[in-house]
Specification:
This protein is mostly beta strands. The protein is flat.
Length: 999
């Protein structure tokens, strides 16, 4: 049998087994037996001999097999299409029969056992994540199934990507199964810090195949390298009630350790990078002094359990406030000694005691008490002295004082003094309060008054005060009141006196005057105010129509009198301090003044503004005493009737002739005592009116020779003055503007034909808010010799025409006066038509068919009184253009720049080309694209690019139209890599030919 045992084959692949027999004529049959089919007792395949000696295939189990045979070679083949697990270690047997089918037939057989190979599959890890620490071993399993059995290796990759084979730390076991050998490898390994965040995988290899497992992530725990630390804030002994922050922190480890406090408070956790902070915040109390706060660190690595602690140092306030005791107690006599003791209990540290009193001071402490003693002798100056004991503490909020007042017996040092409760004079009928005061003494002095009234004891701790209150009248003025003082010390009995000052009012005043009324404007008069004085001295105040005078006299002098004084009410007011404070008004009866005066004239304005064509009413008011008669005059001629107090001047349909006229208003008062009183006032009328152009002319006449200076003048009558604008009507051009003027000049320094035309003067002003204007025009005619109007077109020296083609020329000429215009050909006048308008003259020449004998030179004659003009025009046949002239070229490294002049185009549109070639190779010529003509005798430019550097070129300009091409002379230029320039300039012979034609 081939292949012999073991017949190796991969699972699910086909296997062909060949039964090889001897080649004998008596071969009868060959059979195959499969152990997986009926345990190999029945054949699955039979090969029989047929009559021709060949073999015939008979398949008993026809599923899953193929067969072939060649009896001539003794080869019989069985193919298992897909070898399954059931074939492993199972045989295929072949039996061969030789003979005729009798008992004497010979039989032989052979076996081949199949070995089914299985690729490595199902490489599985027991864990996807490996959690461990650096202090202990961790187990993990890897399983793989295959045939033959695989060898399992282990690979570790640390966090830095470095691989390591750690298979030596593993143990493997093998289990045979129907699907192959299952190998189990157990890895027992202690990882280090660098392995954290690394990877682990296993690899199974059975020679015919290899496979890796999935990757397991390494999570390796390790403790911090150091113990935690505690930071206290504030970092000093704390005060009771102060906020304390204890921060426990530790760095390193994976994962970070957990921290806990044994002290209560507001606990917070935070992490910064690889450091964990565990903070407790609490308000310190007296009871916290000496307390120990501990921070415990825990970690998955159980060997890491450090504890750190901190002892609290808390300051706290004393239990009591300071207390002062005096020895001896009570009041003391002057020159005696006393002792004051200040005591405070409790506190950490003990309180610090200080005195503000001078003396012998001793300070001491006991276990829980601080005390300080001050001893000194007293005098009367020590009475009421306050001794203060100040207790302070390291806690700033504790700062308290104890006060002690020293009581010493002594008499007042000074005599009593008196004062008035409200200083100063007293108004009659008012009450007054007098106070008597004795300062100092212990006890205070006793006081009494000799003035009758209501007394009140209003003493203080340091002063003895007795007041008396009574009502005064003007009889109390200058009276004396006396205060008496007594004391237990009998030698002390002084007195003090006070003088009273009483204010009272003057009597009501009355007025008298020196001269009888009426009074006359310009005179002076006197008025007297009579009143009995009060206390203090009286003052006088005069008013006229409630307006005050500044004089403080009983006699008032008024004058010189004016008209406004008439009817004024005069009164006198008498006052002193008493009447002012008590708001008593003492005034005389009113005295009304009777003053006669000349009339006072009033008009709205001294200059009256009016508008032409409108009406105007002007009022003249006059006030006087007696009442005046009012009337208007012009040049001393009455224009209105006489009226009382007012007269109206009526101006109707006002004309500009009234402008600047002056009217006079006259007022007359008749006084029985003083005669006629007169006044006058003059006004001026100012009239606004629209513009009127009174003159518009050319100063030197409307016809002027060309090139002379001429001035146009416009004169305007208007009020206000006008803004004058000059406009050239012929082309609507604004020439000049003058503002706020009555005349304007527009001057042309040098006249030309184009100044011929109509000129307009426009005058504008604004009257009564409305813009008004006046416009006039005048014509200026400029004498000028004939010339072609180049604004239309030029007349060419040459005109190209086809034979028998029409000629139609329209020529615009400028000339004044109207010129004579003729075309002449061979001394004969050619028919033409003309139109003239001002300086514009249009001449038309039309020839229906220009015969061959009509080509040649035509002469144009134009003449007027100012001059003449002759033009020559040559009609030529259309042909090819004249060659370009003035050609020059500038060569650079790879470019050539051309300039040339365009000549006559032959009567048709022409185009230019630049032809260029290598000087050494005339055959290879190149030509540029079309270059458009810009007109005869214009200069054209063109830059030729992409030339070869350091090469000599030849160039020429070609001009082309319908009839042919003309060429300029050839010009040479060499390009250079160093930027050297080659200039070439030619003048062509054609230029001379053109000049000859012009001549």
């Amino acid at each position: 049998m081939h292949p012999a045992t073991p017949a190796r084959v991969l699972l699910s692949e086909e296997l062909t087994l060949m039964c090889k027999t001897k080649i004998q004529k008596d071969w009868r049959s060959t059979s195959f037996y499969d152990e997986t089919y009926q345990n190999g007792h029945s054949s699955i395949l039979l090969f029989n001999k047929v009559s021709d000696g060949s073999c015939k295939i008979n398949v008993d189990a026809n599923s899953g097999y193929n067969a072939s045979c060649d009896s001539s070679k003794g080869e019989f083949n069985l193919t298992i299409l897909s070898v399954g697990d059931q074939y492993h270690n199972r045989f295929i047997r072949c039996e061969v029969q030789f003979g005729n089918g009798t008992r004497s037939d010979k039989h032989s057989s052979a076996n081949s056992t199949i070995y089914v190979r299985v690729l490595v599959s199902n490489v599985l890890l027991s864990n996807n994540t490996i959690i461990g620490d650096v202090t202990r071993d961790v187990n993990i399993k890897c399983k793989a199934t295959s045939r033959p059995a695989a060898e399992i290796s282990w690979v570790k990759i640390n966090a830095e990507g470095i691989s390591k084979d750690i298979s030596l730390s593993s143990v493997s076991s093998i289990l045979d199964g129907t699907t192959g050998y299952t190998v189990t490898s157990v890895l027992t390994y202690k990882y280090n810090i660098e392995d954290n965040m690394g990877q682990l995988y296993c690899r199974a290899d059975n020679v015919i195949s290899a496979r890796n497992s999935s990757v397991a992530m390494l999570k390796i725990y390790y403790p911090p390298p150091i113990d935690p630390t505690i930071q206290q804030t504030p970092n000093r002994p704390v005060n009771a009630g102060e906020r304390v922050v204890l921060a426990c922190s530790v760095s390193g480890g994976h994962p970070l350790p957990a921290l806990t406090w044994n002290c209560s408070g507001n606990i917070t956790d935070r992490t910064s990078g690889r450091t964990v902070f565990h903070t407790v915040v609490f308000m310190s109390a007296k009871e916290d002094n000496g307390k120990i706060c501990a921070c415990l660190a825990t970690h998955p690595v159980t060997s890491y359990r450090p504890v750190v602690s901190l002892k609290l140092d808390v300051n706290f306030l004393p239990d009591t406030l300071p207390v002062i005791d005096q020895v001896p107690t009570g009041a003391v006599d002057t020159n005696s000694s006393i002792m004051l003791k200040c005591t405070v209990k409790g506190g950490k540290p003990l309180a610090i005691l200080t005195w503000n009193c001078t003396g012998n001071i001793t300070t001491n402490t006991s276990e829980d008490t601080s005390f300080s003693i001050v001893e000194f002798s007293v005098t009367k100056h020590n009475h009421g002295m306050v001794c203060i004991c100040l207790a302070t503490h390291s806690i700033a909020s504790y700062q308290h004082t104890a006060r002690h007042i020293v009581n010493v017996i002594y008499p007042p040092d000074d005599n009593p003094y008196t004062e008035q409760a409200i200083p100063g004079p007293i108004d009659t009928g008012k009450s007054v309060t007098l106070k008597c005061t004795a300062v100092g003494g212990n006890p205070l002095a006793s006081l009494s008054w000799d003035c009758a009234g209501i007394t009140s004891n209003i003493s203080t701790n340091t002063k003895s005060i007795l007041s008396v209150e009574f009502t005064v009248d003007k009889n109390y003025n200058s009276k004396l009141c006396t205060c008496h003082a007594t004391h237990p010390i009998k030698s002390y009995s002084p007195i003090s006196k006070h003088e009273l000052i009483v204010y009272y009012p003057p009597t009501k005043p009355s007025l008298t005057y020196s001269f009888d009324m009426p009074w006359l404007e310009g005179n002076i008069t006197e008025i007297k105010c009579i009143s009995v004085a009060g206390n203090p001295k009286s003052t006088f105040e005069w008013t006229s129509n409630e307006m005050r005078f500044t004089e403080n006299k009983s006699m008032l002098t008024i004058g010189p009198l004016v008209g406004d004084d008439n009817g004024k009410a005069i009164k006198c007011l008498v006052k002193n301090d008493y009447t002012i404070r008590n708001r008593i008004i003492l005034t005389s009866d009113l005295l009304y003044m009777d003053v006669e005066y000349s009339p006072e004239i009033k008009v709205e304005k001294s200059i009256v503004y009016a508008v032409e064509g409108y009406n105007k009413s002007i009022a003249c008011f006059a006030l006087g005493h007696p009442f005046p008669e009012v009337q208007w005059f012009l040049n001393d001629i009455a224009r209105t009737e006489s009226h009382l107090n007012v007269s109206f001047l009526q101006l109707k349909d006002i004309d500009r002739v009234v402008h600047h006229k002056k009217y006079k208003c006259r007022a007359v008062s008749k006084s029985p005592k003083y005669g006629l009183l007169k006044s006058e006032l003059t006004i001026e009328i100012f009239v606004y009116y629209t513009p009127n152009i009174t003159s518009l002319k050319a100063v030197s006449g409307n016809i002027t020779p060309e090139n002379d200076s001429t001035t146009l003048r416009c004169q305007v009558d208007s009020n206000p003055k006008a803004n004058i604008t000059w406009v050239f009507v012929s082309n609507q051009t604004e020439l000049q503007s003058d503002y706020n003027v009555s005349d304007s000049n527009f001057t042309i320094l040098t006249t030309s034909c184009q100044h011929y035309g109509t000129y307009q003067c426009q005058a504008i002003n604004t009257v009564n808010g409305i813009m008004t204007s006046d416009i006039q025009q005048t014509e200026l005619r400029v004498k000028c010799a004939p010339r072609i109007d180049h604004r239309q077109h030029d007349l060419l020296n040459r005109i190209a025409v086809e034979v028998n083609s029409p000629v139609n020329i329209t020529l615009y000429l400028i000339a004044y006066p109207k010129p004579q215009m003729r075309w002449i050909f061979k001394n004969n006048e050619v028919n033409s038509t003309s139109i003239s308008n001002g300086i514009t003259n249009i001449l038309k020449l039309y020839i229906p068919r220009l015969a061959a004998n009509q080509f040649g030179e035509y002469i144009l004659y134009v003449q007027n009184a100012a001059g003449s003009m002759i033009k020559y025009v040559t009609f030529i046949k259309k042909g090819k253009p004249i060659s370009p002239s003035d050609v020059f070229v500038v060569c650079k490294i790879t470019t050539a720049s051309f300039h040339w002049k365009s000549e006559f185009n032959g009567g048709l549109t022409q185009y230019f080309h630049i032809q260029f070639w290598d000087k050494e190779n005339n055959a290879n010529r190149k030509t540029t694209e079309n270059i458009t003509d810009t007109g005869e005798l214009t200069t054209l430019q063109y830059t030729l690019k992409n030339l070869q550097s350091n090469l000599a070129y030849r160039f020429r300009i070609l001009s082309t139209n319908f009839y042919g091409t003309s060429s300029s002379n050839v010009v040479e230029c060499k390009t250079d890599s160093e930027g050297k320039l080659c200039f070439s300039l030619i003048k062509t012979i054609i230029q001379n030919i053109v000049q000859h034609i012009h001549i």
